[in-house]
């Protein structure tokens, strides 16, 4: 089973930038999308990707052109759950949950905390409430996979300019401490575990042509329940694929 995650920064926009060809190349069984920035009534046949064998499920926020997530599936799944179950977050369309056998796979667009103290507080509540969900599923014996745009670079290796971003949301001590807490709760950042010294990014600020200079951030992850490491055949970051200010990443499980 191959799972891919990609913050597309607008699903309608990326359709004009070779998205279908990229999806073919990625060859995902389950493809999580963040920042669709669209509603279901804006869907077109092109976006559905039926010719590639996919079924699309969307969880859109109330505010048009903002946030929202989706998942393309081309394998049988037991259930797809829209939202976190908490209205305060679900009005923004941030969480999808796919259940396949013993796996619970979360595709999440975590909030950005950069627009003031109130928004940072919202982000931290989101972090804590979702962590409780992850731990609950793990305690119930499920194999938990969390992917998406976490909106935090965990360590200095995960961004190009750690010194100048100490007070920037996405690299604040409180945000980084939550990611450390997530891992301490029985989870693994599988890409970093397998590539402990690799400098690689998943997001580049378009305003400053940061991708041209590879001045980026690694803020998109696959985080797994501890004990699943031997099930992982491959984990990749596709920083050669364009179309968004983020690049896709994948996790392939054996069998």
From TrEMBL:
The record marks 220 as: Important for catalytic activity. The keyword Flavoprotein does not apply. InterPro entries: AP_endonuc_1 (IPR004808), AP_endonuclease_F1_BS (IPR020847), AP_endonuclease_F1_CS (IPR020848), Endo/exonu/phosph_ase_sf (IPR036691), Endo/exonuclease/phosphatase (IPR005135). One of its GO terms (molecular function) is DNA-(apurinic or apyrimidinic site) endonuclease activity. Belongs to the DNA repair enzymes AP/ExoA family. Its cofactor is Mg(2+); Mn(2+). Keywords: Hydrolase, Magnesium, Manganese, Metal-binding. Residues 4-246 form the Endonuclease/exonuclease/phosphatase domain. The record marks 246 as: Interaction with DNA substrate. Pfam families: Exo_endo_phos (PF03372). Its EC number is 3.1.11.2. SUPFAM superfamilies: DNase I-like (SSF56219). It is an enzyme of class 3 (hydrolase). Probably binds two magnesium or manganese ions per subunit. Mg(2+) binds at residues 7, 35, 149, 151, 245-246. GO terms for biological process: base-excision repair. The active site is at residues 109, 149, 246. This is Exodeoxyribonuclease III. It comes from Proteiniclasticum sediminis. The record marks 151 as: Transition state stabilizer.
